[in-house]
Amino acid sequence: MFETLGSLTASPWIYALVAVSIVLDVFLPVLPSGVLVITAAAAAAAAAGTAGTVPVPVPEQVPDILLLLVIATTASVLGDMAAFRLARHGGARLDRAIARSRRLTRAQERLGTALARGGGALVVIARFAPAGRSVVSLGAGKTQRKVAEFLPWSVLAGMAWAGYSVALGYFGTRWLGTQWLGTAVSIVALFAAGALAAFLVRRPPSAAAATPAA
User: Fold this and answer.
1) How distant is the alpha carbon of residue 14 from its chain centre?
2) What are the DSSP calls for 179-209, one per residue?
3) Going by C-beta distance under 8 Å and a sequence separation of 6 or more, which residues neighbour residue 59?
4) pLDDT, tens digit (0-9, with 9 covering 90-100), for 57-114
5) pLDDT of the residue at 134
6) Are residues 73 and 158 in contact, defined by beta-carbon separation less than 8 angstroms?
7) Residue 25: count of CB within 10 angstroms of its CB
8) Taking the model in full, what pTM does it have?
9) Which Pfam families does the record cross-reference, listed alphabetically (predicted)?
10) Is the Cα dihedral 117, 121, 123, 126 positive or negative?
11) Among 33, 62, 34, 35, CA closest to 46
């Protein structure tokens, strides 16, 4: 698997592949967009010539780390807004599809007040959770939130997720000294962040205030 992904990072099409994967995984959360970003960032780290003190052989063409960060962030926001617009103008057919999903129904109930009261941090946290981006983007559109309420948080979420993923791949390879090991450890760290984010998103918002008074 790592050999296949590694060969993709040496192709000029890696940027397009990363962008398309990130845009579409709001509709198809099974797409490995985070894995692609980490692998590309790891290749960029290897291109620095050394990881720590150990020489690392690299292909002739590798991703540019800053361009990768910009593309990942931009694609994340574009995907969010596409889902947001679709849910906002989706009509009765989309309404029925959302109603069949317990997670999306719950999002409708929570996001309306959360986003209106400045609780858009939920958008940032959910960006790391499996399918959380889909739930939040579709839920925000379905509850008829204004673009001005949702877009800034989507941008912040995209920057946080892209920055975290790129940093994992880049510094993981630099510190561990081997591209495949840095990629593997970084992917595990990405999944760990996703598990934590899923826990935070699913936790009832009033959990902290549920302690009974003495």
Assistant:
1) 17
2) HHHHHHHHHHHHHHHHHHHHHHHHS-TTSTT
3) 9, 10, 43
4) 444 567 889 999 999 999 999 999 999 998 888 766 666 766 676 766 666 666 555 5
5) 84
6) yes
7) 21
8) 0.80
9) VTT_dom
10) negative
11) 62
Amino acid at 87: A
* DSSP per-residue codes, 26-59: TT-TTS-HHHHHHHHHHHHHHTTSEETTEE----
* Tokens (6 digits) for 49: 């010539």
**Whose structure tokens read 């940027």?**
15
Structure tokens at 156: 């912040």
In angstroms, the CA 42 to CA 183 distance is 6
- Amino acid letter, residue 13: W
Task: Name the residue with tokens 């209106």.
Answer: 116
